[in-house]
Amino acid sequence: MNDRMLTGDERAAINSAPWFASLSPSLRHDILRSARVRRYGDGDWIAARGDRAAGWMACARGSIRICATTVQGKPTTLDYVEPGQWLGEIALLDGGPRTHDACAHGATTVLHLAQPDFQEILSRHVELYGALLRGFARNTRRLYEQVDDLKTLDLRARLAKQLLELARKYGITDGSGVRITLRLAQQELAQLLGASRQRINEQLKRLERQDTIRMDDGALILCDEGLLQRMGEACA
Fold it and tell me: What's 44's DSSP letter?
């Protein structure tokens, strides 16, 4: 395989994502023609907080972990970016530094559009401005929802919603339920929810006893999405 080219599955992940698919064929063509493929191993750094923005990027395979470190040196995970999603446009548009660290979670392929190419495409495709604004609006809605969850839901409800979100991003339906293909240790899941590993372990064991989830060879399987949905709607 030519490492400088996307595989068929990677290209399909980019092209089938709703936001990218909403762009005109000519804009999609110019983005893909100008972008370069970069491949990373598990844990490799992709970008660092405070860096000058060098380009716009999309996850084509694997996952990009968006994270930060507190002043006390404690790592925290904010999100896992799934294949088909783009990121990094904030620093490109406002000229500021990168807002967070980004690293590969598992073997990860990133499509990278250098800053000069991004600016050139913006100048030739006015529709990209509107598309970026729609993306900002979607992300802002999601951010407000997450803040609302932190203030109104207990850990059980937030865990249920997070499991459903991971299933949406990385789920594969099989005979036993929805298998989350993103492998997360309990500590990583705890960071994502802003809780301790011990508390997450307690909640997961409770869900297992209720036959709501199941562990299979390190993978988490959702057996009862309806119950998780109802849990996620229950206020603290």
Answer: -
